[in-house]
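Re: export button greyed out
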Amino acid sequence: MEENRSTATENAFRIAGYLCMGVYFLLVIFPLGWILLSSMKTNQEILRSPFGLPAAIAAPSLETWSYVADKFARAWTESHFSDYLFSSVKVALGSVSLTLLLATPAAYVLARFVFRGSRFLFLLFVAGLMVPGQLVLIPIFFEYNLIGILLTHAVNAISVPLGLGTYYVSLHNSHVGIILIYVATALPFSVFVLANFMRTIPEELREAALMDGATEWTCYWQIMLPMARPGLVSVAIFNFLGVWNEYIYALTFLDDETKRTLPIGLASVSILSEYKSDYALMFAGLVITMVTIITVYVFLQRHITRGVTLGALKG
Amino acid sequence: MIRLPTRMILLFVGPALLIYGLLYLLPALAAFALSLGKFDGISPPIWVGLDNYRELFSLQGPFFQSLLHNLFLIFVPGILMLVIALLFAYWIDQGLKGAGWYRVFFFFPNIVPTAATSILWLLIFSITDMGLVNSVLRYLGLEPIAFWESSNVLWTLVPVMVWSGVGFFMILFLAAMSSIPDSLYEAARIDGAGLWSQFIHVTLPLLRDTIATCWIFIIIGGLKAFDLVWIVEKEMPTSASHTMATLMYSEAFRQFRIGYGTAMSVILFIIILGVTLLSMRVYRKERLEY
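Workaround output, generated via the alternate export path:
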């Protein structure tokens, strides 16, 4: 009797589990399918039957498919989605590689060597973890104004006497400017995680190499870096997704349509299209954005889950 | 430890320190100074002392309202997210088939850029004929709901935030659950505990640390909330939907009240600092061993 009851509840537990998770599975999948189908519809089709199939699927013909192709082509060029994607890739790769280039040696030295002020320096980096980006946002806007003026004067002090003309230098509305901000923002977390990672690498390896006559420099490049690879990959992915997703800085610093990254590009095009009731364009832009992130996810899923949860597990 | 030449230290730490100091620490410190002035971005700032803060702290003021909105966006979706994530993780941990698939698919919404999430749900909950939810309501003969009306925005964002957060917390819970030894469950079963009481008496207590970590994530993330509200409100949130960050942004970059906006970001920082220090203290005090 007892045995029967417990298997009965266990079965109920399982069935409830499959049901709930099945429903949630649909909640994740359905919106993706919906935007894909809707992106092939005309505005009239979208409004007439939000659940219906697009003509390109229901009645495939040269005409319906050329409409779809034409719409995506317009989103890609006229609405600048090609520029947004290119900017996002450029900014993300630029800031991730520069972050790693700066954070790794700093983390290595702070993790493995004791010198006057080493503890203070480490804490200084870690303190940045408690500073929200919003506190930095407004002052850095005006700091960039000042740096721009200084750089312009400096450049022109050289270029004008040489007869090379006058230049206007600004970190506003520039990919270099925003990459530098992203790097500065990513450094506390990256240095913290990488330093903790490097502390787990056995000291004997390094000592043995030094005995064999290796310099500190080769030690770093040939022993520490290869050993720290899993940590580097996680930090890189964590930062990549952070930059890929970033909104408030990009909104503030990137003005030109050709320089905007995907998140602000998508948002600004969509807000404008909604006023004009051009839903077809919104769906096309959404599909382009989703396809890129799905592609990344398909290739890096395991690393991504680890990289993203890394921040939580460190505590 | 072997001593490292100063030249080497400078070369290794210097560049990172320069960028971090110049573009993060310095502006963070400058924020405190900027918050004590009246500044429109063009004419030189005027010293006003604590006036900006005085304006912030009036209880009828917009800042206090926006803080309440942040608290709403922390606790309402937060509780739902954690309950759902705990249940899902427990089901998977108890051996439901297809665990790998749930992990991959449930986590996916978490990496979709927030801007895309906002636009997606803006369309799903749209009041026009294309809105999925409203067309179902119309089909059922019900009145359509203006989900994105400013006064409804916060409630509408609840399912959106749950949708994008559940997978992340589920993965964290799964990792924690897999480190609970089977012997504990067996002992509970011998004592006659069913699945439910195993969950309540074995799993939950042992996940206390993980749940605390999740709350810190939710609280800090919720205090900084900007993207979702900013986009679904089409860059113009109202007094019914402003969060601290959107109010700060509107004041500083739309109204050009830069000192006032910066004072808000300073308060936001102090709140976040308080939460972080409090959580570190809790962690140091009680570490669960098993």
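The radius of gyration of chain B is 24 Å. The button fix ships in the next patch.
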